[in-house]
Amino acid sequence: MKKEVLKKAFVASVPVLSGYLVIGLSFGVVLQSRGYGPLWAAAMSAFIYAGSMQFVAVELMSSAASLFTVALTTLMVNMRHVFYGLSMVDRYKNTGRARPYLIFALTDETYSLVCNPPEMAPEDEKNFYILVSVLDHIYWIAGSFLGSLLGSVLPFSTEGIDFALTALFVSVFVEQWLSAKDHVPALMGLGASVLCLPVFGADNFLIPSMLLILLGLTLYRRREEAKA
């Protein structure tokens, strides 16, 4: 594996590094406040690896929710990854044994990076996908573990700390906006979300928004292909 590819993967993942450390710290602190220690934080981040769902899982664990409730909630919260996965079929088709891990590690932030890789030889892109996925995963585990340790020695109110997740989405969006030449997809995402929020409500607008975004991007792509 070329050092140049590792360097590109690390540089590309720096925004995620800063965000995941902060979000991971927040998650670790919240988890510690519910009585779960650093090993729980590391294990959840290693095997669940779903930022928003992990915050929700803390409340489910604390309330002794049923397995059915946990399964249904997980499905609803992570439904958006179905759409991400469909769009990555072609990119990941030649990744061999790494493919199951790449599918597992496809978070929102990792998706944004692998969709816009820096210029490199086609044969290096596979390694770029793997390295970005692994690095982002390590950042999340490290942040969660450190946050749990911090929460155990510095007790304080955790109210509002999970807003860090929203801040991460905003920072990734801004970074992608500045680096992309075509802003139409981003505007589609914003428009669909703003439209669906008052119609479906804050608790139910995510899936309709994703469906509307998928439809809009599909039509937009066809139009661009027709122009070419």
Rg computed from alpha carbons, rounded to a whole number of angstroms: 18 Å
Low-pLDDT stretches are none
- Series of secondary-structure elements, N-terminal to C-terminal: HHHHHHHHHHHH
Name the helicity range.
over 70%
* Anisotropy-based shape: globular
Could you explain how this protein is built, in words?
The protein is built from twelve helices and no strands. The protein is mainly alpha-helical. The model has no long low-confidence stretch (mean pLDDT 83). 77% of the residues lie in helices and 0% in strands. The longest helix has 32 residues, at 122-153.
Keywords:
single chain, 228 residues, mainly alpha, 12 helices
Quick rundown:
By secondary structure, the chain is mainly alpha-helical. Helix content is 77%, strand content 0%. The mean pLDDT is 83.
